Amino acid sequence: MFGIQTSELLVIALVAILLFGPERVPEFFHRAGQVMSKLQRSADDLWTSIQTEMNQTTKPLEDLGGEIKALGDTMKRPLGTQGSPDQAEPPGSESAGPDEPDAPTGDGSDGPPETV
C-alpha cells in the first residue's frame, strides 16, 4: 500500500496518536485518505492529459511516415511498371528483346555475339 510497510504504518499511527490525541486520530486519517485520493485522481488526470497530447502530436508524424513509406515503395519500382514493387522484376533481370543489338550473350563479353 503506497510502498509503506506494516512497521512504518504503525510508527505513523503512534506519532499521530501522540500529536493529535486518540479522539482526533480517526478524523486525521480520514482527511489524509481524502487527500491521498485527490492526489491519485489528479495524477491519473495528468497522465491521461499527457497521453492525449502525445497521441495528438504523434498522429500527424505517423501519417507522414506512412506517406513517406508509400512514396519510397513507389520509387523502388522500375519506370513504366505498375503494381506493387514486389511484382516488379529486379533491375538487370529484364530479358533483352531481339531488336536490341547490345543484348548480353552470357559468355562474358559486353558486345553483340560474333559470327564466324
Based on DSSP secondary structure assignment, what is the total number of beta strands? 0
Summed up, the helix count is 2
Helix content: 55-70%
**Arithmetic mean pLDDT:** 77
Give the overall shape, derived from the CA principal axes. rod-shaped
Beta-strand fraction estimate: under 5%
Rg computed from alpha carbons, rounded to a whole number of angstroms: 37 Å
How would you spell out the order of helices and strands? HH
Low-confidence stretches: none
Class from helix and strand fractions = mainly alpha
Gap between N and C termini: 95 Å
Please summarize the sheet with the most strands: none
Describe the structure.
The protein is mainly alpha-helical. It has a domain of 48 residues. It has two helices and no strands. The N and C termini lie far apart (95 Å).
Topology:
Blueprint: H1 6-20, H2 25-76
Task: Supply database-style keywords.
single chain, 116 residues, 2 helices, 58% helix
Quick recap:
It is built from 2 helices and no strands. It is mainly α and 116 residues long.
